[in-house]
Design brief:
The chain is of the alpha+beta class. It has three domains: 170 residues, THUMP fold, CATH 3.30.2300.10; 129 residues, Alpha-Beta Plaits (2-Layer Sandwich), CATH 3.30.70; 113 residues, Alpha-Beta Plaits (2-Layer Sandwich), CATH 3.30.70.3190. 34% of the residues lie in helices and 26% in strands. A hairpin with a 4-residue loop joins strand 3 and strand 4.
């Protein structure tokens, strides 16, 4: 609240000759509401609302013998007389959504833009506040009062858009972001949806008219549970890298952020959600450690450099002594690998030579002709080619060190260790 001293000061400022002359010129154009008149001097006086400024100016003009025409405002076309109509439209839209914060925005029609440009030609724009700024504020104040929610400029849960072109209220519902890790227990499931290469999702004979290369994905399996609980429109999974389709993701799981689009709800018990995903996808996937985060976590996940630990089942093409196998595996530990883009992915990746480090390579067991090893290495190192050598495109490789052909039969990811311990930072930086 402004004190009477501030209001008196504001009135005195508005009574200055220059301002009165400008107000006189404006009112000569036709009827104008208090809001639109006062808004042209918003930056001059403090402690007054625009409608109060306008009322004071009209009073001063009448005291000076000027005629101030009444009627529908030629600037806003009566917009500020029907604020409650817009508030009602907004509340009707908002009733289906759970939110704590909001922001009001306006799409101004061409006629109102022209009127505002005209009044600025008369009054100048130096002291004025734009029409849509006042409209946003006044409608926002009323929504705050009616809902008890908070107007938030930086990170609102949703944006109420007053479309003056269509005379409708639109909502921009901002996404909910959740961090966690997923485990994948079945092979043959990609991380995200793969559209058919032939029809690009339209449906054809090759994909059995599903539009997809694979019938299901981690993203699709968990989205059913999550989208339903949040009453959302869709969900996108942003992963910290991805495992091969024929690899399982075990152990600590792979970090990810899911983005729930157009959510009707924003607060769901995440422990319950973990149990629901597990129950509805028995033996396929589960999610753990779910936490609410902000949008910025998507970029952190995508850009994080993570060391990966793999458990590999290797088939040997010739007989090798166990001692020789142990020595060969040990030679890979600590090695810097020069790996040219593997043959199997070069059609979709740049054909480059990349250097990646193997932090440790551990002999686990040997059941002829199958060798079991565990490898921890830089993210981006193709493990299948580290084993096979890919026709010399990866050096050194287990095949090269052994001097015989080897092939990965099964592959599991058992840990994804990011370069900063992300989980410890989420509560401090991203969920506050």
């Amino acid at each position: 609240m402004c004190g009477s001293g501030e209001s008196s000061t504001g009135k005195a400022e508005l009574e200055k000759t220059e301002i009165i002359e400008i107000a006189r010129e404006i009112t000569k154009e036709g009827p104008i509401c208090d809001n639109c008149l006062g808004r042209q001097f918003a930056k001059i006086s403090s402690g007054l609302s625009n409608d109060k400024r306008g009322a004071i100016l009209k009073e001063v003009l009448r005291e000076k013998g000027e005629e101030v025409e009444e009627g529908k405002c030629w600037v806003c076309n009566g917009l500020f007389e029907i604020l409650e109509v817009w508030v009602s439209k907004a509340l009707e839209k908002l009733k289906d959504y759970e939110f704590d914060s909001f922001l009001v925005g306006t799409k101004v029609s061409g006629m109102l833009l022209e009127n505002e440009e005209l009044i600025w030609e008369i009054a100048g724009a130096s002291y004025a506040e734009p029409l849509k700024a006042e409209l946003n504020r006044e409608v926002g104040k009323r929504i705050e009062h009616e809902t008890g929610k908070t107007a938030e400029f930086e990170r609102p849960d949703l944006v109420v858009i007053l479309n003056l072109w269509t005379e409708k209220v639109e909502l921009q519902v901002n996404s909910v972001f959740i961090y966690g890790r997923y485990r994948k227990f079945e092979r043959g499931i990609p991380q995200t949806r793969w559209f058919c290469r032939e029809c690009r999702g339209m449906g054809c004979e090759r994909c059995n008219f599903t539009g997809k290369m694979y019938p299901e994905s981690v993203e699709e399996l968990i989205s059913g549970s999550i989208v339903e609980e949040f009453k959302g429109e869709d969900m996108v999974l942003h992963g910290c890298g991805r495992e091969d389709i024929d690899a399982r993701m075990l152990g600590s799981g792979r970090p990810f952020v899911v983005e729930i689009k157009e959510p009707g709800r924003r607060k769901v018990d995440l422990r319950m959600l973990e149990e629901k995903v597990k129950e509805e996808n028995k033996g396929k996937v589960e999610v753990i450690g779910l936490q609410y985060v902000k949008r910025e976590m998507v970029a952190k996940i995508k850009n994080a450099k993570a060391a990966k630990t793999y458990r590999v089942e290797v088939e040997l093409k010739t007989r090798i002594k166990e001692e020789d196998l142990r020595n060969a595996v040990a030679k890979l530990s600590g090695a810097v690998i020069e790996q040219r883009t593997p043959t199997r992915v070069v059609h979709r990746r740049a054909d480059l030579v990349r250097r990646r480090k193997v932090y440790s390579a551990r002999f686990v067991s040997f059941e002829e002709p199958v060798l079991f090893v565990e490898i921890k290495c830089d993210g981006g190192l193709y493990i299948k080619e580290l084993i096979s050598g890919d026709g010399g495109r990866t050096k050194p490789s287990l095949s090269e060190v052994l001097g015989t052909e080897t092939e990965v039969k099964e592959l599991d990811v058992v840990d994804v260790d990011m370069d900063f311990y992300l989980e410890d930072r989420i509560n401090n930086e991203d969920a506050s």
